[in-house]
């Protein structure tokens, strides 16, 4: 299957290994991956900060870059959510509707278009799962406690399908980590306490690895952990799946 | 007298930082509200829950679409039932109407059950300044009233008070034994204290959880029975109600009552649900219908559904920011996520920070019994703030510049190369000074990768 890899701005610069793992994994699963997607950002940072004029230029460029492709994969639930749920209403027009239709978060793409609810692989570790909130409640990539659903969903299925992996339960499995984009700098004190609480929940349950759908959550959580001297291996879901299926 | 919630409001982020200084208390506050959220999860775990939410949302949308008709129907029926119906355009008119009723009956002492509407209108200070004694009879309300504080939560007004602090407050104000912290003993003392106020009031003021157009009835829900004692023991009952509380039928009311208690506290129904349609013989009953900005909100299509709110408090309890910043950090009579979309409509300039006091995690929308899309309205208010020039300081400059960089691949890559060079040359200690909100509260500097993905791909691959 032919698919474009779209690498969000902050992944490109702060966590290129998540993009490299996505590329390697997609190829391993038989995809013909194009690296010709040439827009850096869907505009979400500016959009969520209210600066919609600045968001529009980035979003226009993003949907222009999406036009040639029939399938686009992003290693980010948050950006996928923005492209799918905000851009059509924000920009209007066919190009935005097309981008919304063909853009997938990685787990969605594996389970959906590729038709692989689980992957053969091995990851003998105790893993805590953290879905970014836009993946959790925007894309519904996981069951939500608010809706009385158990911890479930596409990402959990992919993890549970791996040999040796133990998914540790959390006290608050779908509580926000406190990143929130501009929130992290606009409300830094609350943001950091939320991060600490998330890490404490993960540590209390003896997880060796924290895996997330969203590199942005990890950027924040790693920064909190590094400041506190917390030792925890953090992986994006692409990195974990790539390592497990080698 | 200052309680644990004391201190002036300095904007949400600063107030929240102040709240978090006492880390142990902040963690206790978070856990107390999380406990409420868990009670809500258990109480709402019904097969028909999502259908109920859909029905609640629909019946509210229906009521708002026929607001004028339903209010007039209510007035007709209530008047026929012997109730005096008053219309108040704003808080000032509301307060003047209540004062007029009290003056004409020579009342100088009133009891008042929980009512966020009267908080919104500032009724207590208005009446007190005119020589009328007001005793709040909800236990939590009484605690914050004795401490001269506003409620910090719309349903649990004294949630920020610890048992020991309540014991000390009651010792000072009610003469309970020093060191008494037993909830039973403190509640018993409050009961005696409040009974006197309830029995000797010249009028009982209540709020209302709903008005039913087809019956002209007023519905009041409490867990303490204080509203019932207040309205039934005084010769005058005054119900102060926001006009958005109207529903068309008793069937609609049934849906809302199921949603309300389960969402707020996890109870199947509040301990007391009182339907009052007419004054008892020899007594008088007044209903004051208050607009105070609600019709303006109704005309604002993007924000209209905020009027559907039934004040259950579920969005406060679930909000990870509210739990860790406390009710006073919002600086508004309604706190939490719903407050953050209601307050800007009252005064965008004064409350411009509130739509940013959220990570947009979406939990509020998922617990909302009438499915208000709070995150969408938070985003809409942020955009309006940008248009009105009331964004938080620096946002406009920073995000305009960022948007310029992020809207072109070549500009982005050029800027990233500069940033990487800066990262090599500038000592980390300079970048993590007190001025840097990322690092100040306890985060390490993020590190730009030595090689970006695109640089790696360019080196390794020829783009196909």
Outline of this structure?
Chain A is an alpha/beta fold and 246 residues long.
Task: List the topology elements.
The complex is a heterodimer of chains A (246) and B (464).
Chain A: E1 2-5, H1 9-14, H2 16-28, E2 32-34, H3 44-48, H4 52-66, E3 72-74, H5 77-91, H6 94-102, E4 103-105, H7 106-111, E5 126-130, H8 133-138, H9 154-160, E6 166-167, H10 183-186, H11 188-204, E7 209-212, H12 215-228, E8 233-236, H13 237-244
Parallel strand pairs in A: 1-2, 1-3, 3-4, 5-6, 5-7, 7-8
Helix pairs in contact in A: 2-13, 4-6, 5-6, 11-12
Chain B: H1 12-19, H2 23-43, H3 49-65, H4 67-80, E1 84-88, H5 91-104, E2 109-112, H6 116-121, H7 123-128, E3 133-136, H8 139-146, H9 163-174, H10 183-199, E4 203-206, E5 210-212, E6 217-222, H11 226-233, E7 236-242, E8 246-247, H12 250-264, E9 272-276, E10 284-290, H13 294-299, H14 314-318, H15 320-325, H16 336-346, H17 363-367, H18 374-388, H19 395-406, H20 409-425, H21 428-431, H22 453-460
Parallel strand pairs in B: 1-10, 2-3, 2-4, 4-7, 5-8, 7-10
Antiparallel strand pairs in B: 5-6, 6-9
Helix pairs in contact in B: 3-12, 9-10, 16-18
């Amino acid at each position: 299957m032919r698919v474009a890899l779209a690498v969000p701005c902050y992944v490109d610069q702060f966590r290129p290994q998540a993009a490299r793992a996505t590329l390697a994994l997609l190829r391993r699963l038989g995809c013909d991956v194009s690296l010709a997607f040439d827009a850096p950002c869907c505009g979400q940072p500016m959009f969520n900060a209210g600066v919609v004029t600045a968001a529009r230029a980035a979003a226009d460029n993003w949907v222009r870059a999406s036009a040639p492709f029939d399938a686009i994969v992003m290693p980010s639930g948050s950006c996928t959510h923005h492209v799918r749920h905000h851009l059509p209403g924000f920009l209007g027009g066919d190009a935005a509707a097309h981008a919304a239709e063909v853009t997938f978060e990685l787990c969605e793409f594996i389970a959906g278009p590729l038709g692989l609810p689980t992957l053969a692989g091995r990851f003998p570790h105790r893993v805590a799962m953290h879905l970014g909130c836009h993946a959790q409640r925007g894309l519904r990539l996981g069951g939500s406690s608010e809706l009385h659903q158990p911890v479930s969903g596409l990402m959990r299925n992919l993890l549970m399908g791996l040999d040796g992996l133990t998914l540790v339960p959390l006290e608050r499995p779908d509580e926000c980590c406190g990143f929130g984009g501009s929130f992290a700098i606009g409300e830094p004190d609350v943001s950091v306490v939320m991060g600490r609480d998330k890490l404490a929940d993960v540590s209390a349950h003896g997880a060796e690895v924290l895996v997330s759908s969203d590199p942005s959550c990890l950027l924040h959580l790693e920064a909190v952990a590094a400041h506190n001297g917390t030792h925890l291996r953090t992986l994006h879901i692409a990195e974990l799946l790539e390592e497990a299926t080698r | 007298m200052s309680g644990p919630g004391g201190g002036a409001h300095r904007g949400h982020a600063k107030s929240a930082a102040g709240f978090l200084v006492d880390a142990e208390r902040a963690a206790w506050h978070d856990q107390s509200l999380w406990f409420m959220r868990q009670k809500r999860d258990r109480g709402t775990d019904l097969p028909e829950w999502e259908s109920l939410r859909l029905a609640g949302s629909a019946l509210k949308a229906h009521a708002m679409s026929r607001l004028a008709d339903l209010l007039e129907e209510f007035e007709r029926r209530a008047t026929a039932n012997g109730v005096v119906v008053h219309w108040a355009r704003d808080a000032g008119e509301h307060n003047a109407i209540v004062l007029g009723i009290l003056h004409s009956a020579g009342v100088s002492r009133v009891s008042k059950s929980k009512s966020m509407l009267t908080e919104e209108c500032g009724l207590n200070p208005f009446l007190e300044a005119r020589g009328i004694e007001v005793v709040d009879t909800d236990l939590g309300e009484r605690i914050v009233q004795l401490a001269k504080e506003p409620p910090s939560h719309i349903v649990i007004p004294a949630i920020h008070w610890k048992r020991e602090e309540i014991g000390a407050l009651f010792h000072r104000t009610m003469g309970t034994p020093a060191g008494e912290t037993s909830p039973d003993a403190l509640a018993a003392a409050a009961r005696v204290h409040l009974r006197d106020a309830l029995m000797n009031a010249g009028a009982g003021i209540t709020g209302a959880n709903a008005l039913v157009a087809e019956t002209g009835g007023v519905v009041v829900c409490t867990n303490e029975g204080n509203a019932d004692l207040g309205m039934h023991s005084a010769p005058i009952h005054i119900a102060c109600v926001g006009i958005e509380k109207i529903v068309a039928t008793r069937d609609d009311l049934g849906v809302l009552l199921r949603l309300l208690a389960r969402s707020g506290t996890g109870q199947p129904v509040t301990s007391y649900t009182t339907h009052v349609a007419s004054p008892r013989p020899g007594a008088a009953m007044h209903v004051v219908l208050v607009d105070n900005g609600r019709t303006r909100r109704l005309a604002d299509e993007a924000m209209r559904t905020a009027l559907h709110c039934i004040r259950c408090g579920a969005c406060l309890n679930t909000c990870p920011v509210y739990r860790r910043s406390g009710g006073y950090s919002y600086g508004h009579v309604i706190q939490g996520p719903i407050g953050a979309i209601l307050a800007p409509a009252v005064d965008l300039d004064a409350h411009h920070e509130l739509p940013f006091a959220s990570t947009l995690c979406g939990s509020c929308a998922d617990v909302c019994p009438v499915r208000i899309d709070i995150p969408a309205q938070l985003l809409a208010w942020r955009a309006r703030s940008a248009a009105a020039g009331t964004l938080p300081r620096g946002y406009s400059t920073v995000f305009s510049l960022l948007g310029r960089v992020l809207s072109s691949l070549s500009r982005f890559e050029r800027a990233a190369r500069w940033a990487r060079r800066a990262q090599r040359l500038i000592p980390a200690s300079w970048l993590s000074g007190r001025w840097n909100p990322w690092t100040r509260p306890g985060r390490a500097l993020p590190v730009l990768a030595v090689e970006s993905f695109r640089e790696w791909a360019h080196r390794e691959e020829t783009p196909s």
